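User: Can you model how copper (II) ion sits in this protein?
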Amino acid sequence: MKRTSTVLLASFALLFTVAGASAARDDSSSVAVAARDVSAKTVIQVYKSPTCGCCKAWVDHVRAAGFQAEVFDISDEELQQRKTRLGVGPRLASCHTAIVNGYVVEGHVPAADIERLLKEKPAIAGIAVPGMPVGSPGMEVPGRRADKYDVVAFTKSGTTKVFASH
Ligand SMILES: [Cu+2]
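Assistant: Here's the modeled complex, given as structure tokens:
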């Protein structure tokens, strides 16, 4: 009898664990986090064309900074549609487009600026490094001096403001 109740208790505990896990999965914003809670790293989803080398170098940069990057290789057309949908106009656009905690991160944004964004949580759509400045993370070119560039904060309605200067 004692043995039976122990087994029953264990089964209930298991049931509750499973129920808890699926409840967390229903919250779409925490899908990726719930599935990989062991590491508790911030997930950043990166959309890029399969052949983009500097995009891969930027992914390495954010991974080295402790983010968990999930990379999605998509066609240029899909990437363009995604940018448009997320409010990344031609003046803001770069090679890859990423999403972290609901914010858009466009182009070669330094990981430290992403960390600041997530800490300060401003009411913006995201931040972007337009184009591909030499010397930005993932755009290091041996023998070439780094460009000066801005990280631009933007809203869905299209207003922009300098978030950081490098
Ligand atoms: Cu690039």
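A couple of observations from the model: The chain has one domain: 28-165. The chain is about 35% helix and 20% strand.
User: Helpful, thanks.
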